């Protein structure tokens, strides 16, 4: 291995020269295929940290789908229901635990995951490689690849798919640096870990946190640790179902992530499951069509008469009243926040998306209002005292 790797360019084509390098050791990665770029490596290294910590915290294989240095999805290898297999379009595949993790990470927000960079906690197996092969993706980082998996992935993107192998035993220096405008910033790495003690300070009347809720809250916190702030994460059944990243206000994070979680649940409605697409429709076109079908725009699309290009049979309108009734069935959702909620309006919005468990740092001058709003809905909330800003 070498101490540096030259890149084609930086964030943009005009930003040259560009490279990644280490000072005190060799680079802990090996490029097995392709030519990863600057943003690819940013996604790869952030994603690898996320899945490594998620595997350590839960004992389960983990995967994440990264876009522009924030996760579009993250999950652990919990088996999928038949409904999830169908909405993730993997009901025709064999699914290993690692493949289940990636199916969940990729499938929760397929619009955002389009063209993702993938991180896997475990050696990439054939089942996961087959799934990756048919998705639009820029590359993958993992601690290794089986011979079958590597052969499959090397055929992707006409042989240019980015495949990175990372030394899973690599540990970075405890002090990290970055430059902005020629000025060097220095700070200690964020080495915070999460376990049952994270939930020792239950501040609401409801103090009941089932084990699955703890798992989902830990997943949300680890996801937030590598999401551009401000950020919140909704999680359920071992996966993130809505991530709000990089917003200037907390309520906009909560709304953005909540809307994504709502769409995830609406996709499981029988009307959506029953959509009949024309033969040989491209996967991105199908995903876009589902998103439009659920949105306010669909009646306009029907009026324009363009549905014939997408569907075999003209779908019935999925009315707002029907959607509202379906959303009432969503429950047991966990919510994490990278900083305190300043107002109870965040809880009001979270409640609409079935949130029953929350973890946040606490410390707002309006904590009493936030707690009171949780108590109104019977939500269990812990203050963990840990801010997780990431920039």
Could you outline the blueprint of secondary structure elements for this entry?
Layout: E1 4-7, E2 18-21, E3 29-33, H1 38-58, E4 62-67, E5 70-76, H2 82-87, H3 97-107, H4 110-113, E6 116-120, H5 126-133, E7 137-142, H6 147-153, E8 162-166, E9 175-180, E10 183-188, H7 211-225, E11 231-236, E12 239-245, H8 250-266, H9 270-273, H10 283-294, H11 298-304, H12 320-327, E13 333-337, H13 345-351, E14 355-360, H14 367-377, E15 380-383
Parallel strand pairs: 6-7, 7-8, 13-14, 14-15
Antiparallel strand pairs: 1-2, 3-8, 4-5, 4-6, 9-10, 11-12, 11-13
Helix pairs in contact: 1-7, 3-5, 5-6, 8-13, 13-14
Tell me the overall shape.
globular
Structural class given helices, strands, pairing? alpha/beta
- Given this structure, which CATH class of the largest domain is correct? Alpha Beta
Number of domains: 3
Taken in chain order, the helices and strands follow as EEEHEEHHHEHEHEEEHEEHHHHHEHEHE
The beta-strand count equals 15
The biggest beta sheet is recorded as: 6 strands, mixed
Percent helix range: 25-40%
CATH architecture of the largest domain: 3-Layer(aba) Sandwich
Mean pLDDT: 94
Radius of gyration: 21 Å
CATH superfamily of the largest domain: AICAR transformylase, duplication domain
Unreliable stretches, pLDDT < 50, 5 or more residues? none
Figure out the total of helices.
Answer: 14
Ends: how far apart? 29 Å
Strand line-up in the sheet with most strands: 3-8-7-6-4-5
The CATH topology name of the largest domain reads Cytidine Deaminase, domain 2
Instruction: Tell me the β content.
Output: 15-25%
């Amino acid at each position: 291995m070498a101490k540096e790797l030259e890149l084609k360019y930086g964030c943009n084509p005009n930003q040259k020269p560009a490279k990644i390098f280490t000072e005190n050791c060799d680079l802990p990665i090996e490029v097995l295929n392709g030519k990863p770029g600057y943003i690819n490596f940013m996604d790869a290294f952030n994603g690898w940290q996320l899945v490594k910590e998620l595997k350590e915290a839960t004992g389960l294989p983990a995967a994440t789908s990264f876009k522009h240095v924030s996760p579009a999805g993250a999950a652990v290898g919990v088996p999928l229901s038949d409904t999830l297999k169908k909405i993730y379009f993997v009901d025709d595949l064999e699914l290993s635990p690692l493949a289940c993790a990636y199916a969940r990470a990729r499938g929760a927000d397929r619009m955002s995951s389009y063209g993702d960079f993938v991180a896997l906690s475990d050696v990439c197996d054939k089942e996961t490689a087959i799934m990756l092969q048919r998705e639009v993706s820029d590359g993958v980082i993992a601690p290794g690849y089986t011979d079958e998996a590597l052969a499959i992935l090397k055929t992707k993107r006409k042989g240019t798919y980015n495949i990175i192998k990372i030394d899973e035993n690599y540990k970075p220096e405890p002090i990290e640096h970055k430059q902005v405008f020629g000025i060097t910033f220095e700070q200690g790495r964020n080495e915070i870990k999460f376990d049952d003690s994270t939930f020792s300070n239950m501040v609401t009347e409801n103090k009941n946190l089932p084990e699955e809720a703890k798992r989902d809250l830990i997943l949300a916190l680890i996801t937030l640790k590598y999401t551009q702030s401000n950020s919140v994460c909704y999680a359920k059944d071992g996966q993130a179902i809505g991530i709000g990243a990089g917003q200037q206000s907390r309520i906009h994070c909560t709304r953005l992530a909540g809307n994504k979680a709502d769409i995830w649940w609406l996709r499981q409605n029988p009307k959506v499951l029953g959509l009949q697409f024309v033969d040989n429709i491209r996967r991105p076109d199908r995903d876009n069509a589902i998103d439009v079908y659920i949105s306010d725009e669909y009646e306009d699309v029907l009026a324009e008469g363009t549905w014939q290009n997408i569907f075999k049979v003209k779908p019935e309108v999925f009315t707002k009243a029907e959607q509202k009734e379906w959303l009432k069935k969503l429950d047991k959702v966990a919510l994490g926040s990278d900083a305190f909620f300043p107002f109870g309006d965040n809880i009001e919005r979270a409640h609409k998306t079935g949130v029953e468990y929350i973890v946040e740092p606490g410390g707002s001058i309006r904590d009493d209002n936030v707690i009171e709003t949780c108590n109104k809905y019977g939500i269990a909330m812990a203050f963990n005292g840990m801010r997780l800003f990431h920039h």
